Amino acid sequence: MHRVDESPNAWIHFLDAIPATVREAVLAILHQSGLRTSPMPADAQGYGLVVLGAVDDRVLEQIRLACRRAVVLVLVVAPCRLSAAEAWSLLRAGAADVMRWAPLPADAAQVGARLSRLRTVQALVDSPRVRDVLVGDSPAWRALVRQVVELAVFSRGPVLITGESGTGKELIARLIHDLDRRADKGSMVIVDCTTITPELSGSEFFGHERGAFTGAMNPREGAFALAHRGTLFLDEIGELPPPLQAQLLRVVQEGKYKRVGSNAWQQTEFRLVSATHRDLDAGVADGSFRADLYYRIAGSICRTPRLAERKEDVLELAAHFQAGFDDGDGGEGFDEPVRQYLKARDYPGNVRELRRVVSWLCHRHAGGGPVTIGDVPEDERPAGTESSRDALQLCFERAARDAIDLGLGLKEIGQTATDCAIRLAIEREQGNLHRAALRLGVTDRALQLRRAQQRPLH
Ligand SMILES: Nc1ncnc2c1ncn2[C@@H]1O[C@H](COP(=O)(O)OP(=O)(O)OP(=O)(O)O)[C@@H](O)[C@H]1O
């Protein structure tokens, strides 16, 4: 009999089609394995098992509901022949994992092990140690944090973090190091690859012996030695020119390197975390980034979302930054128009830009109480942006009056407004038509058709 280690408990829910005999068999095996179960509570939270025998739209909806507040493992029992597409749809509905189940005692141990892994990860994700650092509650952000925590705690392989500037890549690298549980943990060493020149790279990365080159008065340890038993963070690795990429291959793979001016091999062991805002797949395709290095640094890939993809987090992040700036006069919370302004504003610089915005709001604010609309600097005030419906209405009114005075008809006014919105959305998304379509709430195809119908500007 396989017994689970920590006698985890979870609620369990059987969907309609499961016969009573199977239910009893499942419960008996789980209990024999040391896993304690209780019926699913009305507002399911915590950890749960949903046992099902078929996947259809109704089942997916039930999974979606069950997963709203709980971490759910789906067990699919025979004779259901779960297809790969069905398994993915269960995952997309929110399941933490999907297991086909005989049910046999050995499988019960697997269920227990998975539950205890999910529990460890979730407990960390919800802990102040993580929540107070990687702020945000949007689904996109929570999914990333869960991935990061699991990688940090249960693996020591290389991690590549990709994402636009200001999205929290360095913060994630620091958390990975912080969560490393080894007893004799070394330091975190950060190398900004944009500052590494071919002349300096050898010494920076590998260190040098005394007299290795002119000016090398004393021996020096390089980044790989300093990161021994710790974490080496190679920031902006996409900026490293190909000859320098080649230098890193062996040490990244085997942990072996030679100091400049020495013939002796040194051994080091570290967790490699790299970050880039570049698309390294494209770099590999066009030859600017070495494929062999790419596969060595990208053991796992974490992609940080743009702030525009997690607008739900803006106010929580703003409150976090405000608390950090609080020197007594920075305000307590934000007045409603300011909240609307913060939510509606664009942040091309992502979270870093939001931090800057909150910083000037707090600096302009005086006298406690919530930050008010007058604290928004003049040149930052929304002139007819969606942050103020009234201002927007006024702008439209002005433009419509001018159009009517010019003798334009309704069709032409509507078309001009649409053309203008399309042009601006494409500009805002730096020419990315897919993102522009998302921003305007239309399909890619609808955007293309509209563009094809656009009249040239006079
Ligand atoms: N989820 C978050 N919670 C709290 N602060 C965040 C979050 N994401 C980013 N920040 C803050 O935003 C700023 C930029 O973050 P960070 O330096 O980690 O971004 P980055 O992606 O590494 O940027 P770059 O590519 O420009 O180096 C920092 O002040 C950081 O504290």
Characteristic key phrases:
47% helix; alpha/beta; Helicase, Ruva Protein, domain 3; 3 domains; Rossmann fold; globular; binds adenosine-5'-triphosphate; disordered N terminus; 5-stranded parallel beta sheet; 19 helices; 14 strands; 458 residues
Please provide a written account of the structure.
This protein is α/β, with parallel strands linked by helices and 458 residues long. It folds into 3 domains: 9-125, Rossmann fold, CATH 3.40.50.2300; 139-303, 3-Layer(aba) Sandwich (Rossmann fold), CATH 3.40.50.300; 307-380, Helicase, Ruva Protein, domain 3. The chain is 47% helix and 14% strand. It has 19 helices and 14 strands. The chain has helices at residues 20-32, 57-66, 84-92, 105-125, 128-131, 139-154, 169-179, 198-206, 223-226, 242-254, 280-286, 291-297, 314-325, 336-344, 350-364, 389-405, 410-428, 433-440, 444-453, and strands at residues 9-14, 36-39, 46-52, 70-77, 97-101, 159-162, 188-192, 207-208, 220-221, 231-235, 256-258, 265-267, 271-276, 300-303. The strands form 4 sheets. The chain has a 5-stranded parallel β-sheet with strand order 2-1-3-4-5, with helices on both faces. Helix 4 crosses helix 6 (139-154). The termini are far apart. Adenosine-5'-triphosphate is lined by residues 134-136, 163, 165-171, 277, 317, 320, 351-352, 355.
